Amino acid sequence: MQSSLPDGFADLERWIDWALPTEYQRNRKRWSASMAESQAFYDVMQARCGDALSYLDQTPLTELDERQQALLNMCLSLTEVAVTVEMYGEPSPKYVFPIDRFVPLHDAWPLGASGPVTGSAR
Amino acid sequence: MSGAASPTEDGARRFMRRYPEEGDGPIPVERYTSQAYFDREKDAVFRRKWLNVGHMLQVAKPGDYIVVDLKIAETAILVIHGKDGAIRAFHNMCSHRGAPVAWDAQGSCRGFLSCRFHGWVYDTSGKLVHVSDAENFPSVDPAANGLSAVHCAVWQGFIFINLAKEPEESLEDHLAPVADHIGRYDFEGFTPAFSYRIDENVNWKTLQEAQLEGWHLPYLHEKTLARAVKVEGRQYRHSAIELHGLHGVLGSPPPDSFTPPPTAMLASRFGTGTVQAFGSKADKGDEGYQFRGSFDFWHIFPNFFVGLLDGLFFTFNIWPVAVDRSIWEIRGYYPPVKTAGELFAREYSKVGLRDPMMEDCFTHELIAAQLKSGAKPVIHFQDEEMLVRHLGNGVDRCVRGLA
């Protein structure tokens, strides 16, 4: 079976459900993950995210292929799960507005929409 | 009134002593809950003052347009970049039967907008250039039936409108107290990077108030932002609060020592964002923007904020919908990203700004719901909440016909 990720990153394949293309989806994933799952993904990305970004930086952002985009999306999920691990210590903090009400509208931004972080899932 | 606040200025009530005209007493809750007061704000503030509706980067090319929903004035405003380069604003309303001429919040046209209802066509200067089935409209003079214009002016790329028939002052005059300060910031080289829209059950002033003081940072944002600011004991002290006419600014002091979490360090290897923006106070030289803190928050009366950081800026527009409902629009502007690493750094920075604002929203609705109880006739603002007090005072002066 071909990996969903670029060669050299097959070890991250088991985390592929974190490779989500929108902020909305990544935030939802963060909120629905267990603490153990969050910590495990965080730990593996602390070890591998730097390698992944160094590898991806060899290609202009707009020219990433599908597998490279998946790897980037996985890295972007670290920005969400980092808050769980480094700040709240829990995946779904109690006194916070959910992303369903704090609606990302990045679609409407032509320049912000270049690259893979487009779209809200409204 | 203006003047740089010194963080080392000794003694309590430093801002109350500098701005005695703002008072130091309790604030009537009625200002947040009364329908009659809200109705007066509508006329005395929103139908009179210049209102920011966006930035040129949203309508960068001729033919580009945005539609801004202004429930407070029961209209939607079309802002369009004309083929002649001018930026104009109109009520988004066809002269035929009142249907909108632009149906999307943002779009681009080739020089003409045509009503989807029956096809009347307007050019980008608002002129009615085609009346469908014209011979059957004997009384319609196209020259007298263009789009209804709204006063519109641009400052430093920020687009403002004024709903008054004849504005009492120019945009230049409205911004005069702050223009020389904010205008020193180098707004070149940024692109729209993110935007959010939050529909909240809260009065528009309560919504703004958490953004008008940093004192709550170590409390409400204990787990998020608190580490990126200076806290003395448990108290946050602004590096500056300045009042400039109806407007004002907060400076947020950089922390004495900032230990970025591992992901911030990782992000800073690949792009700029959190560490650079929050870690220290930037020095842009004598001619450049004078940072009051590691980040400065400018409030432009009545409902606009520009947050200035080193390497990024963001804006808030807070739109009243009803006395107990408001829309918060957030837009962030960063240098364009070219690599995955830069995008990662930007995303990390964005999430770091977003999550504390999600915490703010949660409190807004709880406060608004409870203020309605009538249990308390007043609330209180301390010295570090001077800019909060200043907003309420400014609105109240408008309502009473004094500003």
UniProtKB/TrEMBL annotation, chain A:
Protein name according to UniProt: Uncharacterized protein
Species this chain originates from: Sphingomonas colocasiae
From TrEMBL, chain B:
Keyword Metal-binding: yes
All copies of domain Rieske, residue ranges: 54-161
InterPro entries (alphabetical): Rieske_2Fe-2S (IPR017941), Rieske_2Fe-2S_sf (IPR036922), Ring_hydroxy_dOase_asu_C_dom (IPR015879), Rng_hydr_dOase-A (IPR001663)
Pfam family, one: Ring_hydroxyl_A
Domain of life: Bacteria
Keywords: 2Fe-2S, Iron, Iron-sulfur, Metal-binding, Oxidoreductase
Gene3D superfamilies named among the record's database cross-references: Naphthalene 1,2-dioxygenase Alpha Subunit, Chain A, domain 1 (3.90.380.10), Rieske [2Fe-2S] iron-sulphur domain (2.102.10.10)
Cofactor: Fe cation
Keyword Iron: yes
Classification via SUPFAM superfamilies: Bet v1-like (SSF55961), ISP domain (SSF50022)
Identification of the protein by name: Rieske 2Fe-2S domain-containing protein
